[in-house]
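> tool_call: predict_assembly(chains=two)
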Amino acid sequence: MLKRTNDQWLKDLQAEGELRESALAELRRMILNSLPYALSKWLPTGDPRFASLIEEVAQDTLLRVLNHLNTFEGRSQFTTWTQKIAVRIALTELRRKRWENVSLEGLIESDEGPILESLMVDHQASTPEELMERADLMRRVQRILVEELTEKQRQAMIAVAIRGMPLEEVARRVGTNRNALYKLMHDARLRLKRRLAQEGLTTDDILAVFENR
Amino acid sequence: MMSKENFLMKFFKRFTTSKQAAQITSPAPPPDEIMIRLLRMVENTDDVEIGCDEVFELLDRYVELEAQGGNVADLLPFVKKHLDRCRDCHEEYDALVRVLEATSQQN
């Protein structure tokens, strides 16, 4: 079969009847063939349920592609653009499933209370001087975290940066989207960076103390 | 007919186990490690960063450029930096690269 150009893909997918059917069938085949590579780190391809998952992802991808044809700007191959959409749909579902039984609240709280508010210096392997220095720095950073960040920002920082929950999952649970959450966290990081500078602290200096560099 | 959402919920229910959840919810790291992770994030912060939506818009172009040997760090530096910072976007980049590598080997 001849490879379609981007223009041919767009033309065929917007056509009626057989041309469109044939283009859709080809895209579907391509998605089904490539998802095993995309998801190889996520779900074993030998799993008999894998086939149903990629079939569902392929269907959702084709729907989304048809609904967003006018947003394709031709900056890449049409097929790469389609694969990108398939990857996003597949990983979104897999992330949702993987974190389904984990509560955001449970990640943010420790037995002693909110994680960031209850940090205690690790007493192991430290001289009294090191211990005092660490305790002092930890108190200062904790104070800055509380004063500079909103509760939402602190929650996001803990869930994503410390507990490893995907941005997308955190966003879904707090009723926002991934892009907005990234921007919220960027704002938080900037605030912390500027406040540390105002207090004459650099991340390098603090890291040196905590990493024993 | 079963809706797509219902199908996916039923489908995934079959292979969800509480064991998976237990693996994810390991105890919080020690306080020193928490400090280090937070500070590393702050350290890698630029005044201007692009968001996940902009990266998604450019991701197909980015992986193609990279596959053609283009210096993406120079050509699309904001995307490169975002991928270094954002685990979600990096996972999608990584998956798309594997697809492209597999496809190019087949052609």
